[in-house]
UniProtKB/TrEMBL annotation:
Pfam families: MBOAT_2 (PF13813)
Primary localisation category: membrane
Membrane spanning stretches: 24-42, 49-67, 73-91, 179-200, 229-249, 261-281, 287-307
Protein's name in the database: Wax synthase domain-containing protein
One Gene Ontology CC term in the entry: membrane
Membrane topology of this protein: Multi-pass membrane protein
UniProt organism field: Zopfia rhizophila CBS 207.26
Lineage of origin: Eukaryota, Fungi, Dikarya, Ascomycota, Pezizomycotina
Length: 354
């Protein structure tokens, strides 16, 4: 039977937006404020108070759906995203504290606790701290091989976002075959995240992405090209525990490391499935999960076969695998009918979970 709620007129959608957007923001501000207070306690050296407040913040995060219920699918996804990010952030910090590996502020003179807490809250990658999970690839030697200044300008985030925007525009003018849709979504994520990064970045913030067109392997795509916003929780909550457990069980180190990589991709699969659940069908969620876990397994296999060797055959195989997986995934995503031609109004219609 057809769901008539998806045929609501535009003024109903606008009314829902006006009603539910403040509710969504409020639902995020309350636990977000408590999360900040917990980090302030940590910055003041009061770890017991931090533990209590962070547990309370985590509880409020997971209660936000019930405290401020919203029907708009996009707002529900926003709530899910915030809950998942906040949960990973808190668990990541607790894990670092338990293993005595919490990073130290090294971007200058240590700021007062109120500012340090704000930095801890907003820096997903611990850019201002040492150690941090950021691993930047060596800069390419071309173009402008004889002019380091021009080459640095070419690879700046400002030039690269314009270049990726141009590629995105060209792709949107082409027939929207699945692999074109997949590339369009990859570029959309690049453009949106980089745009936000350029607005809210700190002086110490390195780029989130490398140029997508330079990826020449699955391993390079995920470690050098794609954004590393969630590298810290992947390391502390998935890779390191898996590696340590398997080494303790006397598994060979290479197998333990490979399992740690797959565990990290599995964490990202769960994260994306939960965050996007209000916007996706059950089939779409399953394909998102397979996409991430499959990438983890195939990346491990690729490294086992090729090691660190770079070759054009490896690059072609990587792009073929990545686009095949992404194309298979976007077929089940209803907003993927060409990013510019998607039903964006439908994002604020009732969630498919209702």
């Amino acid at each position: 039977m057809e769901n008539n709620s998806f045929l609501a007129p535009d003024h109903d959608l606008l009314e829902r937006f006006v009603q539910e957007f403040p509710r969504t923001v409020t639902a995020l501000l309350i636990p977000g404020s408590l999360l900040y207070l917990s980090l302030y306690a940590l910055a003041k050296g009061r770890r017991s108070l931090f533990g209590f407040l962070s547990l309370f913040a985590l509880l409020l995060l997971w209660m936000s759906h019930y405290a401020a219920p919203v029907s708009c699918a996009a707002f529900r996804a926003l709530l899910n995203f915030a809950v998942a990010v906040g949960t990973m952030k808190l668990l990541n910090i607790h894990s670092l504290l338990l293993t005595n590996s919490f990073p130290q502020y090294t971007a200058g003179k240590t700021p007062r606790p109120s500012i340090l807490a704000l930095i801890l809250l907003t820096e997903l990658r611990y850019e201002s701290f040492t150690p941090n999970p950021i691993r930047l690839p060596p800069p390419p030697k071309t173009p402008f091989a004889n002019s380091p200044h021009r080459r640095q300008l070419f690879y700046s985030e400002y030039v690269q976002i314009l270049l990726h925007l141009a590629i995105f525009t060209i792709l949107q003018s082409l027939p929207q075959y699945p692999f074109i849709k997949a590339l369009g979504i990859l570029l959309t994520i690049y453009i949106i995240w980089t745009s936000m990064q350029l607005v809210v970045r700190y002086r110490t913030s390195p780029p989130l992405f490398g140029p997508i067109y330079l990826a020449d392997s699955l391993a390079a795509f995920w470690t050098e090209t794609w954004h590393n916003a969630f590298a810290a929780p992947c390391l502390s909550l998935a890779y390191t525990p898996t590696l340590s457990l398997l080494l303790a069980l006397r598994f060979p180190r290479q197998i333990a490391r490979s399992a740690g990589v797959v565990a990290s991709f599995t964490l990202m699969a769960v994260f994306h499935m939960y965050a996007l659940a209000p916007l996706l069908s059950d089939q779409g969620m399953k394909r998102i999960g397979v996409f991430f876990v499959g990438n983890g397994v195939l990346t491990v296999v690729e490294v086992a076969v090729w090691g660190k060797k770079r070759h054009w055959v490896r690059a072609l195989m990587a792009w073929g695998i990545e686009l095949s997986l992404a194309s298979w995934t976007v077929i089940a995503i209803p907003v993927a009918d060409g990013v510019l031609g998607a039903d964006w109004k439908g994002l604020c219609r009732p969630s498919n979970l209702e």
